[in-house]
Input
Amino acid sequence: MNEVNIAGIKISQNENGLWSLNDLHRASGGNPNQRPRDFLDTERAKRLIEALSQPGDSRHIIIGISGPHGGTFGVKHVLVAYSIYLSVEMEVAVQGAFLEKVEQNPMSTMDMVIASAMEVKAHDERLSKLEGLTKQLGNQELNVLPPGYVGRNRLVSTHGRGFSDNVVMGVILPHYQVSVKSYHIFYEEGGIIEAKCYHVSQSKQAIERFITTLWQVTIKFCESDILPEGTRVAYSLPVEE
Output
């Protein structure tokens, strides 16, 4: 949310981009005869809201919110019109505050057009790069694992029985020669990378076989003849699936 400062009072903007008329009323001194609802009863305010309301436009021009943090909120045109209603001093202060915001954010229409064009160009370049890499891969699908295979992280977290990534990937799977295949992942920023996936059933069997080799099992650690001599690894007792 944004805000501007008028006479030491912050004029807040809600999540819909509407400005608080109540904050501006307080900044003006809080004249009880110039409340937001008094302004909205004027013919000028009614014509302004009618002019701002376009057929088929679902945006709120002005809304009232109840509760301790509620009040009357309107679009910038309504806030400026309310400042004119309040006093010349408020009109100058509000218009000056919005001019200052524009100066602090000087992106012109041309700047925005150029930025948008650059974004479109970058998107097209990513698509072109993806098409080129896809042609190199032939008919392989991206981000699709072969049936019956699972990625590294999911394998360790789901079937690893509490063993670390290093133990599962560096000791158990290679020792029992679990089938490994490659698949390709597309990252919008970095193109396509090759990743490894592992046969689920073979991996689960390998881990269970490894568990049968364990000795000196404690609540937290275990040893195995498969591990380098003197190596103890973290371990969680098997759970029923």
